[in-house]
Design a protein that fits this description.
191 residues, binds nickel (II) ion, two-stranded antiparallel ribbon, 5 helices, 29% strand, Peptide Deformylase, 7 strands, alpha+beta
């Protein structure tokens, strides 16, 4: 396994639509090795998720995992999940304000409105169909990662630019209030 370099905002790879993975490709050694690298790179960087375009690979694959994450200590845990060719469908139109950051956007966070509940359809890395509902903070993480597959970064979705903050100023001025909001969201949606 190899820890890969993470593309930074401004690189065109982050702005193109990634393409679907064929069943034949998914079963092959090249894509399976790539998925191992994606997971390893996500864990090395303490990401809550990582999408293939972030490691210079324009395929519709992303990985998510939250396990007592030091970058996002308030995030509910998510078991390791690999999504191939994911499709997200919002359930209802309820949204919440999520304070997001990204491994491809150094030292910046901002408030992004995200759907509170969505249906996630995808293939897992073995080609089996996944179909489940994601809620709350966890639903926000799914939306962030799947946006990468369409060439979108969280900064595109920040509606109020005055919410932009460095990580240091986030910890100092915004994290306590956001933790309270996260608690309320988790209490409501269970994740
Ligand atoms: Ni990101």
């Amino acid at each position: 396994m190899t820890i890969r370099k993470i593309a930074q905002i401004g690189h065109p790879i982050l702005r193109q639509r990634a393409r679907e993975v064929t069943p034949e490709e998914l079963g092959g050694a090249e894509v399976q090795g790539f998925i191992d690298d994606l997971i390893e790179t996500m864990r090395d960087a303490n990401g809550a998720g990582l999408a293939a375009p972030q490691v210079y690979t324009p395929l519709r694959i992303c990985a998510l995992e939250v396990k007592d994450n030091p970058r996002y200590p308030y995030k509910p845990n998510i078991p390791l999940t690999v999504l191939v060719n994911p499709v997200l469908t919002p359930i209802g139109d309820e949204r919440f304000d999520n304070y997001e950051g990204c491994l491809s956007v150094p030292d910046l966070r901002g408030v992004v409105p995200r759907f509170a509940e969505l249906r996630v359809e995808a293939l897992d890395r073995d080609g089996h169909r996944l179909d489940f509902v994601a809620r709350g903070i966890t639903a926000g993480t799914y939306q962030h990662e799947c946006d990468h597959l369409d060439g979108r970064l969280f900064v595109d979705r920040v509606e109020d630019p005055s919410t932009f903050t460095t990580w240091k100023e986030f910890a100092r001025h915004h994290e306590p209030g956001f933790r309270d909001r996260v608690e309320a969201i988790v209490a409501r949606y269970g994740s």
